[in-house]
Amino acid sequence: MSPVNNLTATTTQELIQYLRVCVTDDRFRKFQAAISLRTRHITLALEDIFQPHNASAVLRSCECFGIQDVHIIENRNKYEVNPDVALGSSKWLNLIRYNGAEDNTRTCLNNLRQQGYRLVATTPHKDDFTPETLPLNQKTALIFGTELAGLSPVALEMADDFIKIPMVGFTESLNISVSAAIFIHALTGRLRSSAIPWQLTAGEQDEIMLAWLTNSIRKSDLIIRNFISKSQMPVPGAE
Hints:
By secondary structure, this protein is an alpha/beta fold. The protein folds into 2 domains: 1-38 and 199-239, no CATH class; 39-192, SPOUT methyltransferase, trefoil knot domain (Alpha/beta knot), CATH 3.40.1280.10. 42% of the residues lie in helices and 12% in strands. The chain has 9 helices and 6 strands, in the order H-H-E-H-E-H-E-H-E-E-H-E-H-H-H. The chain has helices at residues 9-20, 25-35, 52-64, 83-86, 104-114, 153-158, 176-192, 202-216, 220-230; strands at 42-47, 69-73, 94-98, 118-122, 140-144, 161-163. The chain has a 6-stranded parallel sheet with strand order 3-2-1-5-4-6, sandwiched between helices. Helix 4 (83-86) links the parallel strand 2 (69-73) and strand 3. The chain is globular, with a radius of gyration of 19 Å. It starts with 8 loop residues before the first helix and ends in a 9-residue tail after the last helix.
Protein backbone atom coordinates (compact mmCIF):
# COMPACT_ATOMS: atom_id res chain seq x y z
CA MET A 1 0.00 0.00 0.00
CA SER A 2 1.25 3.49 -0.82
CA PRO A 3 2.42 5.46 2.22
CA VAL A 4 0.26 8.42 1.15
CA ASN A 5 -3.00 6.43 1.34
CA ASN A 6 -5.43 7.30 4.13
CA LEU A 7 -3.73 10.55 5.13
CA THR A 8 -5.93 13.20 6.75
CA ALA A 9 -6.46 16.50 4.98
CA THR A 10 -4.21 18.29 7.48
CA THR A 11 -1.43 15.73 7.15
CA THR A 12 -1.67 15.86 3.35
CA GLN A 13 -1.12 19.63 3.46
CA GLU A 14 1.81 19.19 5.86
CA LEU A 15 3.34 16.56 3.55
CA ILE A 16 2.98 18.90 0.57
CA GLN A 17 4.93 21.56 2.45
CA TYR A 18 7.51 18.93 3.44
CA LEU A 19 8.00 17.86 -0.18
CA ARG A 20 7.97 21.28 -1.78
CA VAL A 21 11.51 22.00 -0.58
CA CYS A 22 12.62 19.26 -2.98
CA VAL A 23 11.50 21.26 -6.02
CA THR A 24 12.35 24.80 -7.06
CA ASP A 25 10.06 27.67 -6.13
CA ASP A 26 9.45 28.30 -9.82
CA ARG A 27 8.34 24.71 -10.41
CA PHE A 28 6.05 24.75 -7.38
CA ARG A 29 4.46 28.01 -8.61
CA LYS A 30 3.85 26.34 -11.98
CA PHE A 31 2.16 23.46 -10.19
CA GLN A 32 -0.08 25.91 -8.32
CA ALA A 33 -0.98 27.82 -11.49
CA ALA A 34 -1.79 24.63 -13.42
CA ILE A 35 -3.83 23.05 -10.65
CA SER A 36 -5.97 26.16 -10.26
CA LEU A 37 -7.15 25.63 -13.86
CA ARG A 38 -7.71 21.88 -13.66
CA THR A 39 -11.24 20.48 -13.91
CA ARG A 40 -13.19 17.28 -13.41
CA HIS A 41 -16.40 18.87 -14.65
CA ILE A 42 -15.49 17.51 -18.08
CA THR A 43 -13.85 14.13 -18.47
CA LEU A 44 -13.08 11.75 -21.35
CA ALA A 45 -13.85 8.06 -21.80
CA LEU A 46 -11.81 6.36 -24.54
CA GLU A 47 -13.14 3.04 -25.83
CA ASP A 48 -10.61 0.61 -27.35
CA ILE A 49 -8.25 3.22 -28.80
CA PHE A 50 -5.41 1.10 -30.18
CA GLN A 51 -3.05 3.38 -32.14
CA PRO A 52 -0.39 4.65 -29.69
CA HIS A 53 0.12 7.99 -31.42
CA ASN A 54 -3.63 8.75 -31.27
CA ALA A 55 -3.92 7.63 -27.66
CA SER A 56 -0.94 9.76 -26.68
CA ALA A 57 -2.10 12.82 -28.60
CA VAL A 58 -5.46 12.71 -26.78
CA LEU A 59 -3.68 12.66 -23.41
CA ARG A 60 -1.52 15.59 -24.49
CA SER A 61 -4.63 17.62 -25.43
CA CYS A 62 -6.31 16.77 -22.12
CA GLU A 63 -3.27 17.93 -20.16
CA CYS A 64 -2.86 21.11 -22.22
CA PHE A 65 -6.47 22.18 -21.69
CA GLY A 66 -6.82 21.17 -18.04
CA ILE A 67 -8.81 17.91 -18.14
CA GLN A 68 -7.59 15.91 -15.14
CA ASP A 69 -9.25 12.49 -15.51
CA VAL A 70 -9.23 10.16 -18.52
CA HIS A 71 -11.19 6.90 -18.38
CA ILE A 72 -9.70 4.16 -20.54
CA ILE A 73 -11.86 1.25 -21.69
CA GLU A 74 -9.86 -1.80 -22.76
CA ASN A 75 -12.19 -4.45 -24.18
CA ARG A 76 -10.08 -5.75 -27.06
CA ASN A 77 -7.21 -3.29 -27.28
CA LYS A 78 -4.69 -2.28 -24.64
CA TYR A 79 -4.22 1.48 -24.42
CA GLU A 80 -0.55 2.19 -25.13
CA VAL A 81 1.12 5.57 -24.67
CA ASN A 82 3.77 6.75 -27.12
CA PRO A 83 6.19 8.86 -25.04
CA ASP A 84 7.40 10.77 -28.11
CA VAL A 85 3.87 12.05 -28.70
CA ALA A 86 2.58 12.31 -25.12
CA LEU A 87 5.70 14.25 -24.03
CA GLY A 88 5.20 13.27 -20.41
CA SER A 89 1.60 14.48 -20.24
CA SER A 90 0.32 11.23 -18.71
CA LYS A 91 2.26 11.81 -15.45
CA TRP A 92 0.10 14.87 -14.76
CA LEU A 93 -3.22 13.10 -15.37
CA ASN A 94 -5.35 10.52 -13.59
CA LEU A 95 -5.76 7.54 -15.92
CA ILE A 96 -8.54 5.20 -14.82
CA ARG A 97 -8.41 1.88 -16.68
CA TYR A 98 -11.30 -0.54 -17.13
CA ASN A 99 -10.04 -3.96 -18.22
CA GLY A 100 -11.22 -6.48 -15.63
CA ALA A 101 -14.86 -7.04 -16.59
CA GLU A 102 -16.60 -8.91 -19.38
CA ASP A 103 -18.11 -5.63 -20.60
CA ASN A 104 -15.70 -2.87 -19.64
CA THR A 105 -17.67 -0.25 -21.57
CA ARG A 106 -20.77 -0.78 -19.47
CA THR A 107 -18.71 -0.84 -16.27
CA CYS A 108 -17.01 2.45 -17.11
CA LEU A 109 -20.14 4.28 -18.20
CA ASN A 110 -22.15 3.05 -15.21
CA ASN A 111 -19.34 4.28 -12.95
CA LEU A 112 -19.37 7.70 -14.60
CA ARG A 113 -23.14 7.95 -14.36
CA GLN A 114 -22.99 7.11 -10.64
CA GLN A 115 -20.55 10.01 -10.25
CA GLY A 116 -23.12 12.36 -11.75
CA TYR A 117 -21.77 12.57 -15.29
CA ARG A 118 -23.98 12.98 -18.33
CA LEU A 119 -22.73 10.59 -21.02
CA VAL A 120 -22.17 12.34 -24.35
CA ALA A 121 -21.17 10.17 -27.31
CA THR A 122 -19.04 11.72 -30.04
CA THR A 123 -20.29 10.61 -33.45
CA PRO A 124 -20.80 12.24 -36.86
CA HIS A 125 -24.01 10.25 -37.38
CA LYS A 126 -26.25 12.06 -34.89
CA ASP A 127 -27.44 15.67 -34.92
CA ASP A 128 -28.00 16.49 -31.25
CA PHE A 129 -25.31 19.02 -30.26
CA THR A 130 -22.13 20.75 -31.42
CA PRO A 131 -19.27 22.06 -29.23
CA GLU A 132 -21.00 25.46 -29.28
CA THR A 133 -24.46 24.24 -28.24
CA LEU A 134 -23.83 21.39 -25.76
CA PRO A 135 -25.20 22.39 -22.30
CA LEU A 136 -22.49 22.31 -19.63
CA ASN A 137 -24.51 22.79 -16.47
CA GLN A 138 -24.05 19.09 -15.57
CA LYS A 139 -20.77 17.20 -15.31
CA THR A 140 -20.04 15.83 -18.77
CA ALA A 141 -18.20 12.73 -19.97
CA LEU A 142 -17.24 12.76 -23.65
CA ILE A 143 -17.04 9.23 -25.07
CA PHE A 144 -14.72 8.49 -28.00
CA GLY A 145 -14.59 5.24 -29.96
CA THR A 146 -12.07 3.35 -32.05
CA GLU A 147 -10.31 4.90 -35.01
CA LEU A 148 -12.09 2.77 -37.61
CA ALA A 149 -15.39 1.54 -36.18
CA GLY A 150 -16.28 4.38 -33.83
CA LEU A 151 -18.24 3.73 -30.65
CA SER A 152 -19.67 0.34 -29.79
CA PRO A 153 -23.45 -0.30 -29.78
CA VAL A 154 -23.29 -0.45 -25.97
CA ALA A 155 -21.76 3.03 -25.74
CA LEU A 156 -24.26 4.50 -28.19
CA GLU A 157 -27.16 2.83 -26.37
CA MET A 158 -26.04 4.14 -22.96
CA ALA A 159 -25.34 7.70 -24.14
CA ASP A 160 -27.59 10.46 -22.83
CA ASP A 161 -26.74 12.81 -25.70
CA PHE A 162 -24.65 13.01 -28.86
CA ILE A 163 -22.21 15.61 -30.13
CA LYS A 164 -20.55 16.20 -33.49
CA ILE A 165 -18.19 18.65 -35.14
CA PRO A 166 -19.97 20.35 -38.05
CA MET A 167 -18.02 19.94 -41.30
CA VAL A 168 -18.56 21.31 -44.80
CA GLY A 169 -16.23 19.08 -46.82
CA PHE A 170 -16.65 15.61 -48.32
CA THR A 171 -14.74 13.77 -45.58
CA GLU A 172 -17.08 12.32 -42.96
CA SER A 173 -14.91 12.47 -39.85
CA LEU A 174 -11.64 13.68 -38.35
CA ASN A 175 -8.84 11.71 -36.75
CA ILE A 176 -9.76 10.96 -33.13
CA SER A 177 -6.86 12.98 -31.71
CA VAL A 178 -7.88 16.01 -33.78
CA SER A 179 -11.53 15.60 -32.83
CA ALA A 180 -10.68 15.33 -29.13
CA ALA A 181 -8.55 18.48 -29.27
CA ILE A 182 -11.33 20.46 -30.96
CA PHE A 183 -13.97 19.29 -28.48
CA ILE A 184 -11.78 19.85 -25.43
CA HIS A 185 -10.61 23.31 -26.51
CA ALA A 186 -14.12 24.53 -27.28
CA LEU A 187 -15.82 23.08 -24.21
CA THR A 188 -13.18 24.04 -21.63
CA GLY A 189 -13.10 27.56 -23.06
CA ARG A 190 -16.86 27.87 -22.67
CA LEU A 191 -16.71 26.33 -19.21
CA ARG A 192 -14.11 28.78 -17.88
CA SER A 193 -16.05 31.78 -19.16
CA SER A 194 -19.24 30.56 -17.45
CA ALA A 195 -20.53 30.85 -13.89
CA ILE A 196 -20.48 27.05 -13.50
CA PRO A 197 -18.33 25.89 -10.52
CA TRP A 198 -15.90 23.85 -12.63
CA GLN A 199 -12.78 24.06 -10.44
CA LEU A 200 -11.40 21.25 -8.30
CA THR A 201 -12.23 21.29 -4.61
CA ALA A 202 -9.47 22.16 -2.14
CA GLY A 203 -9.19 18.48 -1.21
CA GLU A 204 -8.88 17.44 -4.85
CA GLN A 205 -6.20 20.07 -5.43
CA ASP A 206 -4.20 18.76 -2.46
CA GLU A 207 -4.56 15.17 -3.68
CA ILE A 208 -3.28 16.05 -7.15
CA MET A 209 -0.55 18.38 -5.89
CA LEU A 210 0.78 15.56 -3.72
CA ALA A 211 0.75 13.19 -6.71
CA TRP A 212 2.59 15.72 -8.89
CA LEU A 213 5.25 16.30 -6.25
CA THR A 214 5.63 12.56 -5.69
CA ASN A 215 6.07 11.97 -9.43
CA SER A 216 8.60 14.79 -9.73
CA ILE A 217 10.97 13.90 -6.88
CA ARG A 218 13.48 11.07 -7.00
CA LYS A 219 13.03 8.47 -4.25
CA SER A 220 9.93 10.32 -3.07
CA ASP A 221 8.65 7.15 -1.38
CA LEU A 222 11.63 7.20 1.00
CA ILE A 223 11.15 10.89 1.73
CA ILE A 224 7.47 10.34 2.46
CA ARG A 225 8.18 7.44 4.79
CA ASN A 226 10.71 9.62 6.60
CA PHE A 227 8.03 12.30 7.01
CA ILE A 228 5.56 9.75 8.36
CA SER A 229 8.18 8.37 10.74
CA LYS A 230 8.99 11.85 12.06
CA SER A 231 5.29 12.52 12.47
CA GLN A 232 5.05 9.30 14.53
CA MET A 233 2.32 8.05 12.27
CA PRO A 234 1.88 4.36 11.47
CA VAL A 235 2.96 3.54 7.93
CA PRO A 236 -0.06 2.09 6.11
CA GLY A 237 0.55 -1.56 5.29
CA ALA A 238 3.37 -1.95 7.82
CA GLU A 239 3.35 -4.86 10.26
